[in-house]
Amino acid sequence: MVTATNLGYPYVGAKRELKKLVESFWSSKITEQELRTGYSKIQESHWKLQQEKGIQHIPSGEYTLYDRVLDTAQQFGAIPQRYQHIKSPLEQFFAMGRGLQRAATATTEKVDVPAMEMKKWFDTNYHFIVPEFEADQKFTLQNPRAVEQFKAAKALGIQTRPVLVGPVTFLHLGKAAKGTEPFETLSLLSKVLPLYIELIKQLEAAGAEWVQIDEPVLVFDLDAKVKTALEEAYKTIKAQTSIKVLVAAYFGRVESNINAVINHVDAVHLDLVRAPEELDTVLPLLKNGQVLSLGLVDGRNIWINNLSKSIDLAEKAVKALGQDRVFIAPSCSLAHSPFSTTFEKKIQAKNPELFSWLSYAAEKCSEVSIIAKALNQGRDSVKEALAANAAAIESRRTSPQTKNPEVRERVAKVPAAAWKRPSPFSVRREAQVKKLNLPLFPTTTIGSFPQTKDIRIARQKYAKGELSQADYDVFIKAEMKKVVEFQERVGLDVLVHGEPERNDMVEHFGHLLHGYDFTENGWVVSYGSRCVKPPVIFGDVSRRQPMTIDEIVYAQSLTKLPMKGMLTGPVTMMKWSFVRDDIPANELCAQIALALRDEVVDLETAGIPCIQVDEPAIREGLPIRRADWDSYLEWSVGSFRLSTAGVRNETQIHTHMCYSDFNDIFDAIAALDADVITIENSKSDEKLLKIFETKQYTNEIGPGLYDIHSPRVPSYEEMKTRFGDMLKYLPEQLLWVNPDCGLKSRGWPEVEAALVNMVAVAKYYRSLKATKA
């Protein structure tokens, strides 16, 4: 029989229960035991739900309190030296993920450690913690979570399929430990592989029949060394274990990389949402009873599956292999999907047509089961489900909600001159220096300030109609006034309004644009306990009316210092939404860019001297395969320029990017032609700065001086040293001083202490320069 399977489930819970548990533990409101009891109940409910949906291979071991890769690092004893003195495994785990700063007490020692580096997980908006390794790394198997979770499910009568982050992915995504010489991390495979085998044997002894080993690096452009490592790893696992092994690749095409593992595993998983053509390529390679897992249901978006097309594709596999050798699955772990549409009462009531197009993790499990049942028992066995699905698919294809002829005509007729600023940066900079009159090493922030409890309560009351528009406006203006006065007091040079009116940098603007709708419970994890609720782009996008003018103009009226208008860029507006998949991405991005262009021009007309258009998602959206890069970079960079190129020379355009590898697309970043770019720097060991040894960047730049994703406050001396390092790489006249990212998630005491130190650093280096002069 064809088997209905799943690769992973949204571990945060139906209504973010895990987030609330973890954050309660961090604030000492619950004990470690209460945390463990709480998350065990969430796990149990997830296993039972998947079982009820008809999933036969239910994943376990992928559940995490912060990050699966961080789990793997701690499980195999890859603990950087700076965390090894922390005795509690759980406290150590969280310190590695988010940093820890604690004064000594009668019972505890002083701890002051920053978080480890955080990067985007392939081309998703999920962030993983980058493992660190020593050249002589010693691995030890400790607290094997996969075994613990398998046994917990088994005690409930649920046979699960344990999930592990694969050894090659684990090593390949890692880096040399901080302060050590770079080395080839895959050279450690022979050291860590015996522990993987020991772990797999423990799972086998516990009663596991299958183990799922995730090797998403299979979709990268891999050199011979990595392919050799993959072959060595799975040849060794096959020789030394007897459990059935499924190797899962997702997020793209495996191409010839599959040859490294296919002869040494019992099953392979392919992402046929991203690469349906690979079914024909891989089918002839299978032999000796090997199973093919078909990733037919999109694990990364919220649209219903076209069940008839999926069944057609699966039937080809069944015809070639037989039913027993085919698994049906989502394309990737459903951890990248929201929990269930059952909570979306508002969309269901106000826009039932749109609701009929939606499918979250729980519904995707049902789709997997329907496809498997159709293959096992014939299409008539699920004819009602297929009929309802076909009607919804046709409804979406023909709905007038999805099309606006005026928007499409405007995109088609954009003049060539609209795609770039009329003058080069050197000319613009001269005009901006004259207008802004900023000091050397100007200081600023990225945009948001703390979203306090009072702000959240006011927003909730306003949304429920318990606070009038007039009273809400008074409240927001008072919050902006506090932020402006605070920035003046600590000595910042270019100010922001603090964004108290914004719940999210994408959702806020989505409410002000045509073509967007919004979920009640469409939460997905971004990093750690941090969740985002992306808006839904279902139709053509245009601006309803000016979006930010009133707030920014009011904020500017409170100060004589320059104020930045704050917008989210077109690529990020698209990538950080649940994006429509029924028109080309470049066309949709141009629609958003034109809506933003109108806003940028209106801000300039209103007298705002600096306008920041954030694009943290440009690197994230970069296709995984290099062969696809050029076309993507052409339209994504073009869309940013389209959104920003309508202003005069003296208007300073800023942008911001964070938590990604930028070195590969340095030329594209330069091609954005922003007057000032601020970038993440502190968590990545300043490796980005090294590119300036070989590449010249002529526009102004602010590498982040400290990590805002940690509650830890870096000292003045620490920041001073870091800024001194920046001066080794960048011309002083182009250098800005700023944090890594926005301050929304931080508390006011942390923000004030950090910004006071940051401004002091700028003043120190200005005085140093003045003394030398």
Automatic annotation (TrEMBL):
* Chain sites annotated for binding Zn(2+) 2: 658
Annotated Zn(2+) 1 binding lies at 656, 680, 741
Record-listed E.C. numbers: 2.1.1.14
Residue span, Cobalamin-independent methionine synthase MetE C-terminal/archaeal domain: 441-763
- Which residue ranges traverse the bilayer? none
Where in the sequence is the active site?
709 (proton donor)
Highest taxon of the source? Eukaryota
Stretches assigned to the Cobalamin-independent methionine synthase MetE N-terminal domain: 4-319
For this chain's UniProt record, which GO biological process terms are given?
A: methionine biosynthetic process; methylation
Q: Which InterPro entries match?
A: Cbl-indep_Met_Synth_N (IPR013215), Cobalamin-indep_Met_synthase (IPR006276), Met_Synth_C/arc (IPR002629), UROD/MetE-like_sf (IPR038071)
Catalytic class of the enzyme: transferase
Identify which cofactors the protein needs according to its UniProt entry. Zn(2+)
Pfam families of this UniProt entry? Meth_synt_1, Meth_synt_2
Binding-site list for L-methionine = 446-448, 499, 614
Query: Its pathway?
Result: Amino-acid biosynthesis; L-methionine biosynthesis via de novo pathway; L-methionine from L-homocysteine (MetE route): step 1/1
Q: What does this protein do?
A: Catalyzes the transfer of a methyl group from 5-methyltetrahydrofolate to homocysteine resulting in methionine formation.
PANTHER family tied to this protein: 5-METHYLTETRAHYDROPTEROYLTRIGLUTAMATE--HOMOCYSTEINE METHYLTRANSFERASE
Against NCBIfam families, the record matches this protein to: met_syn_B12ind, PRK05222.1
Q: Which family does it belong to?
A: Belongs to the vitamin-B12 independent methionine synthase family.
What's the protein called, per UniProt? 5-methyltetrahydropteroyltriglutamate--homocysteine S-methyltransferase
Species of the source: Phycomyces blakesleeanus (strain ATCC 8743b / DSM 1359 / FGSC 10004 / NBRC 33097 / NRRL 1555)
